[in-house]
Design a protein that fits this description.
By secondary structure, the protein is of the alpha+beta class. Helices cover 40% and strands 24% of the residues. It has a five-stranded antiparallel β-sheet. It has a four-stranded antiparallel β-sheet with strand order 10-11-9-12. A hairpin with a 2-residue loop joins strand 5 (182-194) and strand 6. The radius of gyration is 25 Å and the shape is elongated. The chain starts with a helix and ends with a helix.
């Protein structure tokens, strides 16, 4: 069975790499012997079609996990086709010194989820084959601290795959100031982690502008859609600057807040100045940028915004939305 599957995957990969135009599922089903033997050529009974579709999707995902870049293209008739361009699947020689290899090994240890752990392990094996120094152990301990990035949101994995494969998605999203979620149609760019929270940077088709979504506010399932992106994907540096701005990392003003003594240490670390009031509260001046209101709400009754007035109003609006459920 393992040999048969490996042969089927190899034939599918060769077929996708050898074509100059996108091939539909029907054409691939008629061209690959393993599919013809299992399901017959062309469109068959409903059960046969469903079984083929499930096998084809698994095979396609397996090839992508192995590193093959498979593009999904929709023609003028609305039919979806697939191909793997040779220029997208050709890598230059990889040369790593000991420090670079150690850094990649440390990055691989960050991911604790089963799916990502397998992908990281496979990537390191490929690096070994590409010349990773034999005297470097990527999993060697790098001090007392173990790197770890928690991912609890169910939306993370489908969004990660959508970013990788450049596939538009649809999901329901509840803003902090809204009582009910709204449906969003977006083109995912990248996932970034700020202050322990995951954010998606994307192009919002309905609003015709870039937007940043906090994964913990995505409700229900993330559904993928066929078709190409309508907006250009910016480079990774620009995406990170976008997320940083929306997450409140880029500040151009100052805010004055009252903070309960002995609490809110992350806020104290960001403070420009701290003044003890002597009544169980301290007065802090902190940088004020986009997203600060959402961060302050997390500290609940331990924080009171003094100024500016617009920040105080935003925090009150968010608290009222939370109270409404």
């Amino acid at each position: 069975m393992a040999i048969a599957k490996a042969e089927r995957l190899m034939n599918l990969a060769l077929c996708l790499l050898g074509t100059r135009r996108p091939l539909s599922k029907r054409e691939l089903r008629e061209s690959i012997e393993a599919y013809v033997e299992a399901f017959g050529p062309g469109k068959g009974a409903g059960g046969s079609d469903d079984s083929f579709n499930r096998m084809f999707e698994r095979d396609k995902d397996d090839l992508r996990e192995l590193g093959l870049v498979i593009e999904t293209v929709e023609n003028l008739d609305g039919e979806v086709g697939y191909l793997a361009r040779r220029d997208s699947n050709r890598l230059p020689p990889i040369t790593l010194d000991a420090e670079e290899a150690a850094a990649l090994g440390l990055a691989a240890k960050v991911w604790q989820q089963a799916r990502l752990a397998g992908a990281a392990s496979g990537a390191l094996q490929k690096l070994r084959a590409a010349g990773l120094p034999e005297d470097v152990d990527p999993y060697e301990a790098h001090g007392a601290l173990e790197p770890y990035i928690p991912v609890h949101e169910a939306a993370f994995e489908p969004l990660m795959l959508a970013c990788r494969d450049r596939r538009p998605v649809i999901f329901d999203y509840r803003k902090a100031t809204a009582a009910r979620p709204e449906t969003r149609h977006v083109e995912p760019w990248a996932l970034e982690c700020w202050r322990g929270h995951w954010y998606l940077a994307a192009w919002d088709r309905d609003r015709g502008a870039e937007r940043v979504f906090r994964l913990s506010r995505i409700t229900g399932k993330v559904r993928t859609r066929a078709g190409r992106y309508t907006a250009e994907v910016p480079d990774v540096v620009t995406v990170r600057e976008t997320v940083a701005g929306w997450a409140g990392e880029i500040a151009d003003r100052s805010a004055r807040i009252r903070l309960r003594s002995g609490s809110g240490y992350p806020l104290r670390a960001k403070a420009v100045s701290v003044r003890e009031r002597g009544d169980g509260w301290d007065e802090l001046e902190i940088p004020y940028g986009h997203g600060l209101d959402a961060w302050l709400v997390e500290f609940g009754p331990d924080v009171v915004v003094l100024e500016p007035a617009e920040l105080r109003a935003d925090v009150v609006d968010r608290l009222r939305a939370v109270a409404k459920g």
